Amino acid sequence: MDQLEAQRFGLPDTVALRVETGTVRSGQSLSHLLTPAGVGPQTLHRIATEERDVYDVRRMKAGQDWRLFRGPDGRPRHFAYLINRKDYVVFDLNQGGSVRKGAFPSETRRDFVEGEVQGSLYQVLEDAGHTTTLALAMSQVYAWTIDFSRIQAGDRFRILYERDWVSDEADGMPRILAAEFVHRGRNFPAYAFDQGDGVDHFDETGASLRKAFLKAPVEFSRISSRFDKKRFHPVLKKVKAHLGTDYAAPHGTPIVSVGDGVVVKASYTKGNGKYVKVRHNSTYTTQYLHMSRRNVKEGQAVRQGDVIGYVGSTGLATGPHVCFRFWKNGQQVDHLREEFPPSTPIREDQQPAFADAVADWMEEMARYDGGSESQLAAQTP
Ligand SMILES: [Zn+2]
What we know:
Largest sheet: 10 strands, antiparallel
Distance between the termini: 58 Å
Bound molecules: zinc ion
Helix content: 10-25%
Order of helices and strands: HEHHEEEEEHHEEEEEEEEEEEEEEEEH
C-alpha cells in the first residue's frame, strides 16, 4: 500500500517508505504542516524561496490533500501536495533535495448509452451503469427544450458523451457530444460544437438549443417602475421591496409570455390581482400581475409570444400596467440586469465544419448501437 502510493508519485526507493495522508486545513501553511513532522527551518526556507519557480508554496489551498513519506528511520523524506485531481508537486526533504511537478495518468473516454425512459432519466441512466451526473448534463443541454421533470414513459434517448478520468477515477462532469431525445413522439437532437466562443449545443439545422427571452411582456409599453428592493410603495405609502418591473400600457393591451413554457398558476390574490405564472425550464419562471383578464389556464403549454392575458389594474395598482416578475432558481431577480447566455446559431462560415461534425457524431453513434443510425433521426420533423 505504502509502496504503491510512493510509486504513484514517482519516488525512488519506494520499498522502505511509509506514508501519512492528510488534508490542508484552513490557514495552514507548509511550515505548519512540516515543522511538527520534523522538517528543519533551512529545508523549509529553501523550498519556499529557491524553489519558488517550480511551485510557490503560498498557492497551497485548504481542502487539498497531501502525503508525507518517511524513511525507515522515521525521518521525513518526501512531501507531496495535490494541486488538483490530476497535478501534484513533490518536495524532496533530503538535504539539497529539489521540488518537482508531476501528473497522474489521465485520459478522456467516450461512452454511449441509449434507452427508454420508464421513471426518471436519472434512474434509467443509473440502472444502465452510467454516471448519474449524465442526467444533470442532459438537463443542462436541454434546459430550454425539454422539462425533464415532465418526461413521459416511452420517451427515448441516445447519448454520446465523453468524460475525463484520472488514475481510473472519473474527474469532472461528463460532456454531451451528441444526443437525441424523443419526447412525446418528437425528436430533439443536440450536437456539441465550438464556433470560437466555447462549446454550445445545436439542433440539426444549426440553431442553438438555448432560447432568448423576449425583452418585455408587452409591446409599445414604457417602464413605469423598476425592480427596487427599497421602493416607496405608491398605494401602501411605505417602503416595500418592488421585486418586479412595471410596464405601463393602456387597459386591454395583450400581455405575452416572454418564452416557451407551462402555465403553473392562473389565479387571483388581493395584492397581485389577476395573474399568471409561467415555468420556462428548471431555472426560470416568470409572473405577470394586475391583469384585467387572464387568457390561459393552469397546466396549459404556451409558446413565446402567446397572449396569456390583458393589461389591467386589478390588485394593488394605481393605473393600468403589468408588473413583470422574473424568477431564477426560486429567487426574484431584476431581469434587466440578468446576463443571459447567447443563443446564436451556427454562423454561415462555420456551417460546413458543423455539418462534418454532425456526420461524425451520427456515424460514431451508429457504430455503438450496431448500425441503426437514423432510427430516431428519421422522426425529426
Ligand atoms: Zn410592480
